[in-house]
Amino acid sequence: MKKEKLDLFSISDAAQFLGVSVPTIKYHVKQGNLTGRHVGHSRIFTRSELEKFQANRKPAHRPVTSTAPHNVKRRKTSPKQ
Q: Which residues contact 7 (CB under 8 A, 6 or more apart)?
């Protein structure tokens, strides 16, 4: 039987792997979406847990904004004579 290498990630490594911030990882741990395991005072995650989380994760809702800047001052045009 072949042994599989277990990839382990710290919180900061997990954040980088998923493309999110460390506070986002901590939020998902608190919500129960990610569990990880305690090792001393640290928490570690397996690659398989992070991949499952990523596959089931819904994209963040970001409001659609106009492409035109809102702070542009319009020039006043003088009337044609």
A: 46, 47
Three-class DSSP labels, the chain: CCCCCCCEECHHHHHHHHCCCHHHHHHHHHHCCCCCEEECCEEEEEHHHHHHHHHHCCCCCCCCCCCCCCCCCCCCCCCCC
Domains and CATH numbers, the chain: 8-56 (1.10.1660.10)
pLDDT in tens, 20-62: 999 999 999 999 999 999 999 999 999 999 999 999 887 666 6
Query: 31: Cβ–Cβ under 8 A, 6 or more apart, which residues?
Result: none
The whole-model pTM stands at 0.64
| CA angle 53–14–5, rounded 5-degree value | 85
**Judging by DSSP bridges, how do beta strands 8-9 and 37-39 pair with one another?**
unpaired
